[in-house]
Amino acid sequence: NIDVPYISTRSFSDEFGGAISGDLVFVQVSYIVAFIFLGATLGSRIACGKGSRWAMSFAALILVAASTAAGIGLSSFVGLIYGPVHSLLPFILLGIGVDDSFVIANAFDRERKVSRSSENDDGIIARAGRALGRAGASITVTSATDLVAFAISSSSSLPALSSFCAYASIGIFFLWAFSATFFTACMFIDEKRQRDNRRDCLCCVKRSDDNEEEDDLDKGAKEGRISTYFRKYHAPAILSKPGKAVVLLVFSALFGYGIYGAINLPVEDSERNFIPSGSYINDYIDLADEYFPSSGVSLSINFENGQDIYDKRVELANLSERLTGLSTAAPYIAEPNSESSYQNAMTGLHDFLASSGSAAVGGVTLGDDNWPTSYEDFVLTMKNYTSFTGPGRVYGRDFSYSEDRSSIRLYKVDLEYVRLTKENRGEVIADAARQIDAMDETRAMVESWDDLPSAFVFCEQYLSIEGFKVIQQELYQNVGLAIACVAVIVLITVGNFMAALLITINVALCIVEILGFMFAAGIVIDSVSVINIVLAVGLSVDYSAHIGHSFLVKGGSNKDIRATEALADIGASVLNGAMSTFLAVAVLLGSSSYVFRTLSIQFVLTVVLGSMHGIVLLPVLLSLVGPAPFASAEAPRTEVVDDLELSEDKMENEE
Fold first, then answer.
1. Residues of the chain with pLDDT > 90: what percent?
2. How many CB atoms lie within 10 A of CB 321?
3. How far lies 318's CA from each of 305, 348, 361, 415, in Å?
4. Residue 267: DSSP 8-state
5. Which of 164, 140, 146, 180 is CA-nearest to residue 72?
């Protein structure tokens, strides 16, 4: 049996597109996972009845789906391009939308001061207003910062990144609008359903048992288990003096490693990663690496102006002399010693005329140098030589003639680079650094040939290499601009300089750490990881902004108490939002698509590090240098003050 590995021009796009399409089932699975987690945690109980919110879980998914559809629809309407990487949009909006849902639902619960059965419609409306006043500011801060972070990156010079960020920013706007309208309205209907003792997900059916015992105990919103954990265990642990020292030490170490990883994070050609494992393309590439290690990417030098080409015919025929010895250093052009690495029609024609004369190619008069004596004769000879039946038919596609074919407009010399690859963590990948050097040096070399006709270099791979050349700059530029804009938006929406500064610092530290752990995970800088880093700016802001805003609306002079109250108030929503995003994206770890697999790793890093910064580091920073509360801030709860004073007295006695 003969095994024939093969590849075609469309192979890569077919296999990559097929991997993306085949893994879209993970989108459905992630939404199912999110629905189950939302249903189990959005309410105070899982079983159907008062406190359950399975219908609201479904409403949250409708919120995300409607925002995604509206964002894609409007973006397409205004002419923005849609590509395979845009398949990430549902996951991004799912992470942000679920977080907003938890914040709004939490606000509805905490604003209820009486039993549900004693509330009339006007009372629920008033509670909805107070809840939206509490949650609306928080989700507006996070939505505005997310939107601006993506909008800024939509100005990128990389088309894929620019289009994706534009789509995302439009989708986030709809997410904010639908959260404040559609989801809030659904919450109002669900509160009426619970008050009237109707079935969850089937509110037209009333439960047969009124369960008065449950209602008697239901005199107001009870603090959930996660909020209780934050109040009684988490906050005292991290806000104690030893706890603060440990937190600052651990996060300093994480930041240090982040700097190390960010500095060493390479720009690499990840094109091979887009090919699914088991694809026939891998068989072809592996054999090419093994048997043709010196064969690389093709390129051509294109000379213009037929008269100049004729005038410099001797120099062009001897062009190989200028291209010899360039294979071991930039521009890394393969030695011109074979037909596969060097094809020059001028050399071929001169050798033919010198050995066989011009009889077979038009019979024009040749000079002492074995070239036609005029430009017109040269054009005629070259057309006959490179014709379909001519002796130089292999060069037939190397010339471009005028419309009447009386003159030459352009002719090209085909060359080849050596194979510019390297081994990275046991895998053979393209060496992006040497590819950039090869491209730049080739262009500089051709521009220096002032004794030859004007020329330019063409290589299909240059499109990707140009991306390598600017993508690192684009990464740091877009992330820097996004963080700067986040700082401004947080300052405007939060209205406090110190709080905005701490939130921005928290986000910046988180991004540096994500870059560091990307290096540890073997992720390189490419078009996919750059998009996900911009996404990380938006998501990590959410975890910190909610805590920072909640700290400002907690009254009192004791910053430890205010930090504790902020964690008990909004910490559960932040943690639940992080966990739902984590679970929804974790299913992508089994994807065969490089895009989804990279997304899942970076999403996990963002969720874990972002939530840690939001519920661990930021409360410590706020307790140390946090600002004073708003004038309209809530008074501290008496039992919290008493508990904290008892805790402090106990620590002093132990000391």
1. 34
2. 10
3. 18, 11, 21, 14
4. B
5. 164
3-state SS, 544-586, equals HHHHHHHHHCECCCCHHHHHHHHHHHHHHHHHHHHHHHHHHHH
Q: What is the SS3 assignment for 417? A: strand
Distance CA 374, CA 362 (A): 13
Grouping H, G, I as helix, E, B as strand and the rest as coil, residue 16 is helix
Q: How far apart are CA 581 and CA 327, in angstroms?
A: 50
Phi, psi of 414 (to 5 degrees): -90, 130
Amino acid at 384: N
Q: Is the pTM of this model over 0.90?
A: no
Q: Residue 263 corresponds to which tokens in the numbers above?
A: 């500095």
Q: How many angstroms separate the CA atoms of 110 and 224, rounded?
A: 10
- Residue 325: left (phi > 0), alpha (psi -120 to 50), or beta? left
Q: Which residue shows structure tokens 């700290």?
A: 551
Asked whether 446 and 498 are in contact (CB, 8 A), the reply is no
Say which DSSP state 630 is in: P
The three-state secondary structure class of 204 is strand
Q: Please give the structure tokens belonging to residue 45.
A: 């109980």
Q: For 344-461, where are the alpha helices, taking DSSP H only?
A: 345-356, 375-385, 432-447
Residue whose structure tokens are 């809030």: 184
pLDDT in tens, 159-190: 777 888 889 899 999 999 999 999 999 999 88
The two tokens of residue 557 are 């002079």
Alpha helices (runs of H) in 448-526, residue ranges in sequence order = 462-494, 497-520
Q: What are phi and psi of 49, to 5 degrees?
A: 155, -165
Determine the Cα–Cα distance for residues 249 and 563; give it in Å rounded to an integer. Answer: 20
Phi and psi based region of residue 156 (left: phi greater than 0; alpha: psi -120 to 50; beta: remaining): beta
| pLDDT tens digits, 190-231 | 888 888 888 887 777 776 665 544 443 445 556 778 888 999
Q: Which residues pair with 299 in a beta bridge?
A: 415
Q: What values do phi and psi take at 96, rounded to 5?
A: -75, -40
Q: How far apart are CA 604 and CA 610, in angstroms?
A: 10
